Amino acid sequence: MLEHFRAGSLLVTSADRPDVLVAACLAAMNGVEIGALLLTGGYEMDARISKLCERAFATGLPVFMVNTNTWQTSLSLQSFNLEVPVDDHERIEKVQEYVANYVNAEWIESLTATSERSRRLSPPAFRYQLTELARKAGKRVVLPEGDEPRTVKAAAICAERGIATCVLLGNPDEINRVAASQGVELGAGIEIVDPEVVRESYVARLVELRKSKGMTEPVAREQLEDNVVLGTLMLEQDEVDGLVSGAVHTTANTIRPPLQLIKTAPGSSLVSSVFFMLLPEQVYVYGDCAINPDPTAEQLAENRDSVCGFRHCLRHRNRVWQCSPTPPAPLARAAT
Question: Where does the DRTGG domain lie (predicted)?
Fold first, then answer.
């Protein structure tokens, strides 16, 4: 029996075979990455066996149960349809991401290193590259809308994939309630900070930063009721590396606190924004988007440099199409 315990194998056995279950769990605990256990017969696993195998389950060993017997299950598996329908975009994306994780990127790069053709980055490759860069960076990001369902779910995904450590601002009980309602587990890689507990410690800093505008402690306390302001101060104090907001706040409400408290980067005269547009075959970066409605020629040039900076961080060669908002005609096309 032990010769069947190979990495990636799907072990099909009756749920009333404790000898097979224990042997499989011992193999998993000793480094054999068994694909999964498929328990047949519709039996409930014996509680004592389940307790004995807890450490194996903790390694991530998947366990599935079916009501059919072992023979019927084996026949069903042989006729299992492994095709992915062309309209099943979710499964297609998962397959692409899985394959991308096992492709030797350096070897792929070497195939095109001497090519002068324009290179395009597909959306799956872009997401994979972005995820890998984020993992290596190991950043800490504050999420002011910590009890918003989509935000909670996104934070759990980031933590699970090791993309970033997410700091959720909000009432811990409410955040945990939202997580439970979404079927999300908030484990390692997620921190919950109660604004009611930490808010007072930022009052003095806010008064100092805005004293030229006549900021007082009562007004500072009132402004700190806004979690975006609180998260911005955490960013200003280098307690976090970034801030993500906008699920329930407007763009203006998200940008205003950083503009007032952190200001623009050295050498930048304005704030601009970019959209990463994931088209079917390639990725475009659009900027500026809705921040500067009537830019001057100098501001257009600065926006162009900002867009190029984003793409340069991703190690892409820039080709820029620059156009004027009024009149809507191309101004210039350049390569940098």
Answer: 1-78
